[in-house]
Amino acid sequence: MIKKTLTLLLVASAPFIHAQEKCGTEANTLKLIEKYPDYAKAREKVNAETKNWIANQPNHQTKTIITIPVVVHVVWKTDAQNIPDTQIQSQIDVLNKDFRRTNIDVINTPTVWQGVAADCEIEFCLATTDPNGNPTSGITRTETTTNQFDENGNFSVQDASSGGKEAWDVDNYLNIWVCNLGAQGSGLLGYASMPSSSISSNDGVVVGYWNFGISGNSPYHKGRTATHEVGHWLNLLHIWGDNNCGDDEVTDTPEQETDNNGCPGYPHNANSCNITNSDGDMFMNYMDYTNDACMNLFTNGQKAIMLAAINLYRPKLIHNTCSNPTNVINMSSTNKKLVKIVDILGRETNKLNTNAPLFYIYDDGTVENKIIIK
């Protein structure tokens, strides 16, 4: 659903009317807006920049797969918080299935929305090269004395001085922190930093240890918290627009009165918001608050926004690989030969467009990201 009456900044700074928020992204965004003036100004421009990118990329839905290198920072005080590698890998598997729409529960998508349910063509893998060029498992482990972290900056898991772990290069990795955000069922499940042309040094996603990956901690046991928060990291709003009958800036999601919890039956909350809508809420969308077992889709409109976010604000991820993030590629070879130049959509080009990222691919496997400013 899309309206023209609200700006993203207003949405981000709206009063928090939902008690016991499961997602702290709204609060985290407001904190960043208050703390960093450049981020506030950049976020104001995101809606217009995103719409412009989508309008000028009519074929954005049918491009090659983007693979995002992930580093998972496990920050733990108790043995239970120090989750095993297998649980971390299970979360990567969930992200891949959810973003590629290969999750088994796609059969639960109501027929009316099968046509807009999207294969987002985004994949994730644990990084195998760290920022210094050394081999890595893509997992760091930090023992802490901090009992509980939060999204308000009082005890930030992204800050070593608070007992947390500093981010790896945010331009080249998706940083995910796994830590204690509170006891199971206490409210907060996770949060993320939303993109703009001003990216903070602690950019990434934070998820509670007990609801990360596949676990026995129902109803948040299928890894959908991370799917939801990575959606925010790629510029998706909550499906109800964080307001009563608000605006999520997506063209193919129905207008929704508020967040949904539990596991509703279809159709749910039909004809709300004073509109005729017999299908009701798209409660199975990953950007709602329903139980993990009830979530099963992103839409084509949400896919377009996420691809725009990568191209506009996280462009180094486009030609990244797990084994060779672009920031650690050896650029010193003087004998390498240019193989081709591709644009942000992976199309080979000979036109050196100004103010747009181009990727120079060489015969030694290196890639250079260049922008000609005019």
Plain-language structure description:
The chain has helices at residues 8-12, 25-35, 37-55, 85-100, 111-114, 224-233, 300-313, and strands at 66-76, 122-126, 139-143, 174-179, 190-192, 205-208, 338-342, 357-362, 367-371. With 374 residues, the chain is of the alpha/beta class. It folds into 2 domains: 8-313, Collagenase (Catalytic Domain); 333-371, no CATH class. Strands 1, 2, 3, 4, 5 and 6 form a 6-stranded mixed sheet that branches. It has a 3-stranded antiparallel sheet with strand order 7-8-9, with no helix packed on it. It has 7 helices and 9 strands. Helix 2 packs across helix 3. 40% of the residues are buried. The radius of gyration is 20 Å and the shape is globular. The chain starts with 7 loop residues before the first helix and ends with a strand. The longest helix has 19 residues, at 37-55. 21% of the residues lie in helices and 13% in strands. The model is unreliable at 2-19 and 327-334 (pLDDT under 50).
